[in-house]
Amino acid sequence: MTPLRILGKASSINVRKVLWTCREVGLDYRREDWGSGFTPTDKPEFLALNPNGLVPVIEDEAGVLWESNTICRYLAAKAGRLDLLPAQPRERARVEQWMDWQATELNNSWRYAFLALARRNPAYADPSQIAASTRSWNTTMKVLERQLEGSRAYVLGDCFTLADIGIGLSVHRWFATPLEERPLLPAVAAYYDRLSERPAYLELGRNGIA
């Protein structure tokens, strides 16, 4: 069997989704550094794998896949991990709903503020846009707070699922970014600490890298 090949730098939040999923399912892999600061993703050999020029990309005996959530679903299903991604359509859809929420609503809310305050990207220096992004990010995190208040230990209840991987990484990003305003969200804070009991989260999430 061909070893799993992961293309993408370890600091990328989307690459870390895949790495954390590999840790949870016990899958060995070989990772290669691609992305800003490493081998550029606009090289023809990378674009042949992912025409979008984005990480992560994986390759195994079945071929190539890109898009982090798709990769995580594939790896969990391949490993038969129904605890991470249920087979029953309704239960699976609930996991996927929150995975997609993280990739769309949550990611879109934090992008400007994160790039300005954590990455110090000079292209993101407009104070009004930083403030607007911060407000949007905090509002979106309050959605998670309400969900965690009702769902107990994890996003969907007592059991850890794939939804917690992307969301858990984003929660760390929220706490690690020096926001001027950050509301007190006790359920999110407790969730952050609960995830930190998992060795893979300490390695790939709460590891000093936002």
UniProtKB/TrEMBL annotation:
InterPro entries hit by this protein: Glutathione-S-Trfase_C-like (IPR010987), Glutathione-S-Trfase_C_sf (IPR036282), Glutathione_S-Trfase (IPR040079), Glutathione_S-Trfase_N (IPR004045), Thioredoxin-like_sf (IPR036249)
Top-rank taxon: Bacteria
SUPFAM superfamilies: GST C-terminal domain-like, Thioredoxin-like
GO MF, any single term: transferase activity
Keyword ATP-binding applies: no
Pfam families: GST_C_2, GST_N_2
Domain GST C-terminal: 88-210
Domain GST N-terminal: 1-83
Keywords: Transferase
Family named by the database record: Belongs to the GST superfamily.
Name this protein carries in UniProt: Glutathione S-transferase
Organism: Bosea caraganae
